[in-house]
Amino acid sequence: MSAHRCPHCNRTLTSTEALFSHVKAKHGLKAARACVPEHPVFVREAERRAADQARAAREPSMADLVIEAQLNRAMGLPVDHDIAEMFDV
After folding, report:
1. Which conformational region is residue 46 in: left (phi greater than 0), alpha (psi within -120 to 50 degrees), or beta?
2. Could you list the pLDDT tens digit for every one of the 89 residues in the chain?
């Protein structure tokens, strides 16, 4: 077992989770993020952000295409022939 010292006060804690909780409660979230950057919450947040960016870079879904076609039809703009035929837009 290793001891983790709080960089802001004289407290010694037993785990990174305890250190993170202490620093967040006593010194703020920004200090906790700087103190324990590999905390599981921040790892999941980074993975979620990467997945969101990858999802945005993919082709639009069929639902997105239908909604776009319906909006274009309602505004009097041209609609892709294949989409209009496939979904009766």
Report:
1. alpha
2. 578 888 888 888 888 888 888 998 999 988 888 888 777 777 888 889 998 888 877 888 888 889 999 999 999 999 988 888 888 76
